[in-house]
UniProtKB/TrEMBL annotation:
InterPro entries: HMG_box_dom, HMG_box_dom_sf. SUPFAM superfamilies: HMG-box. GO terms for cellular component: nucleus. This is HMG box domain-containing protein. It comes from the Eukaryota. The lineage of its organism: Eukaryota, Metazoa, Ecdysozoa, Arthropoda, Hexapoda. It comes from Glossina palpalis gambiensis. Pfam families: HMG_box_2. Gene3D superfamilies: High mobility group box domain. Residues 69-92 form the HMG box domain.
Length: 104
């Protein structure tokens, strides 16, 4: 039984030593603003905007940049409605987030 306790104790001390050594090795890394912006967009994705045309642009994609404005102009109001409801929802959520911050 004593040997088992000793082996568990050794495992615990090795784990703590690894954590301490890992903390010692950390170095400070700096990144350019463009790298930070790209990483932020990668982490969050493109969130819904309060502008319906931007929601449409994000949905269509970046590869068809030249034609998406023309495509938006030719869309009917019914086709644009989903992007407008997305924008309304984002405005509502933005207002709710702002009110939560004021109350806190």
């Amino acid at each position: 039984m004593e040997l088992k306790r000793l082996s568990i104790w050794n495992k615990i001390t090795k784990a703590i030593a690894c954590l301490v050594n890992a903390m010692k090795r950390k170095t400070r890394v700096t990144a350019s603003p463009s790298t930070l912006r790209r990483e932020y967009q990668r982490q969050t994705g493109y969130a819904a905007s309060s502008n319906p045309i931007f929601n449409f642009y994000y949905g269509v994609g970046r590869k068809v940049c030249a034609s998406r404005g023309d495509l938006w102009k030719t869309m009917s109001d019914d086709e644009k409605e989903s992007y407008r409801t997305m924008a309304k929802e984002e405005k509502r959520l933005k207002r709710l987030r702002r009110n939560v911050c004021v109350k806190a």
